[in-house]
Amino acid sequence: MSFETITFAVSDAIATLILNRPDSMNALNARMRAEITQALTTLPNGVRCVVMTGSGRAFCSGQDLKDAASGTDLQAVLRDEYEPMLQAIRDCPAPVIAAVNGVAAGAGANLALVADVVIAAESASFIQAFTRIGLIPDAGGTWAIPRAVGAARAMGMMLFAEPVSARQAEEWGMIWQALPDESFAEGVLARARQLAQGPTGAYLRVRQAVAGAFDNDLASQLALEARLQGEAGRSADFHEGVSAFLQKRKPRFSGR
């Protein structure tokens, strides 16, 4: 696939998607949103993990304000462009790691936070910058952040629009891990390899179960767990995992 605003490559079952508008700190314009959606909804066979990161000094500075300043209907843009992009991440058949290499602001922060796992460089930060220009958080921010950090911290982030450091985001439970800058790339790659070599079907069902937990009562969640576990129990990876355990060896998961 050939793109203008992102780069996309696959190696050793890991797809790397790089937001590639460094001159604008990887601001999201219409083409970039479409290309992210296309890349994630047409993954090549054999991809078992996706790493999404940014080029240059930022992960993503959010909505390209040159677009917003041109009289764009923001409601239509969110409905027609952001929602498909964010759903493509949530529905991706492989787990998605957001590797936040620098500032993640506005919709750029929320693009990262919708991923399955967020790993950030210690120099990175997350900013709900919307109120600085008279808007409210969008791109799923009002859904993801209160669930991750609670209402009090979410409100503070959104009303004051102040940066939250990667280390603070880790302490709050908003992201999985903050890594020293010098070991960031190596650490992300190690985690991506771990997922790419793991039981892909089980990972998908974990994601489905956790997503359901926010809306289900206990009985409904137990039923969902039972159904998903039944599916996992019929997989080749489950049988390989049991065999490896009994034989005291490392499992060789196929992703099936």
UniProtKB/TrEMBL annotation:
<comment type="similarity">
    <text>Belongs to the enoyl-CoA hydratase/isomerase family.</text>
</comment>
<dbReference type="Pfam" id="PF00378">
    <property type="entry name" value="ECH_1"/>
</dbReference>
<dbReference type="InterPro" id="IPR018376">
    <property type="entry name" value="Enoyl-CoA_hyd/isom_CS"/>
</dbReference>
<dbReference type="InterPro" id="IPR014748">
    <property type="entry name" value="Enoyl-CoA_hydra_C"/>
</dbReference>
<dbReference type="InterPro" id="IPR001753">
    <property type="entry name" value="Enoyl-CoA_hydra/iso"/>
</dbReference>
<dbReference type="InterPro" id="IPR029045">
    <property type="entry name" value="ClpP/crotonase-like_dom_sf"/>
</dbReference>
<protein>
    <submittedName>
        <fullName>Enoyl-CoA hydratase-related protein</fullName>
    </submittedName>
</protein>
